[in-house]
Amino acid sequence: ERQEALLCGQHALNNLIQTQTFTPGSLAEIALQLDQMELVCMAEGNENGVQSKEYIQRIAEGSANVDPSGNFSIEVLRSALLSKFELNLANALQENVRGTEITTFEGFICNRASHWFAIRKINDRYWNLNSTKERPEMISHFRLAAEIEFLQSSGYSVFVVLEIGRLPAPATSREEADIRGSAGSWWSETELLNGKARGVHVNHWTKDNVGYGMRLDGKSTALAAETAIPVAKPMLDFDSMSEEQMLQMALAASVQKDDGGKVEEDTVELSPEPLVSATGAVRLQFRLPDGRKTERRFLKDESTKVLKAYVMECSPNNNGQKLELLAGFPPKAISYDQDIEAAQLLVNKLNVDIFDD
């Protein structure tokens, strides 16, 4: 499937399973169910129930699992794969995954900011199935680990399909492809390997309509530059690089990491977390770029800069990229020239995004 609006989460899932199964409607329904479950847990966990400030604020914020443009959370993608195919997604940095040879896994979902794409093993070859690319790109077994590490160093969160041998088999004929749907382009593996640019079954598209469509709220998605979909950095062609070139690239990456501390210049030291009984203590919730949720207490007269310091502590692998804290609905970047109370964050959930300089 090719990119349409901000539906890359849907495209990533369908490209991963090689069939047109998930739609904006079906994923939106899952998002609604997750929102309802979260609200029930929030009400049951608060002595004031649905009358609590946290619950009321959560209602005012709108969905935490899908935005009006059709961008879905990792929880939605996980639930969709689990309910339909009994497949589990786990972060590649988890301890039980990190120590496993990467070529053991057959499917990956990659995410940075609001863009998602899939990498999948088909016929003993790995393919980058990024919906913003014109065609699938092969990744050799030997280079897969380097590609995954490159994505992670570029700010991507990478999730792996834990089950081995459970992904649906790829289509083997045009007739089978017709049954699975024709939302984008079906490519012949032979033609891709031979460098030909002709697909087996193409739903005619042009670059002019990539990134456009209808949002879930019915409005047009002729996105302005400031809201355009972050496009993934190109996958490196390691096979065509010499050992010296790869060494230079590794050295350059090392230098960038060493300089990473210079990116976040205006930060403050994070003080110890105040007690629940402390005067002016407030609890804030955060959704991190990798999908994790966390919460912490702060003093309401503390500068909002301490929120950034806390998020930096929770995201040690951002590799020098800037972190943007968003709050409210629709989400807006918070200001760092006031305290938490003045910023109206006392009963808020903050979303953390990554962006490049």
Short summary of the structure?
This protein has helices spanning 8-17, 24-44, 53-61, 74-85, 95-98, 141-153, 174-180, 189-193, 243-258, 305-314; strands at 89-91, 107-112, 115-122, 125-128, 137-139, 157-161, 185-187, 199-202, 281-287, 293-299, 322-327, 332-333, 349-355. By secondary structure, it is an alpha+beta fold.
Structure description:
This protein is α+β, with helices and mostly antiparallel strands and 357 residues long. It contains ten helices and 13 strands. It has helices at residues 8-17, 24-44, 53-61, 74-85, 95-98, 141-153, 174-180, 189-193, 243-258, 305-314; strands at residues 89-91, 107-112, 115-122, 125-128, 137-139, 157-161, 185-187, 199-202, 281-287, 293-299, 322-327, 332-333, 349-355. A hairpin with a 2-residue loop joins strand 3 (115-122) and strand 4. The longest helix has 21 residues, at 24-44. It is elongated and about 65 Å long. The protein starts with 7 loop residues before the first helix and ends with a strand. The model is unreliable at 199-236 and 253-265 (pLDDT under 50).
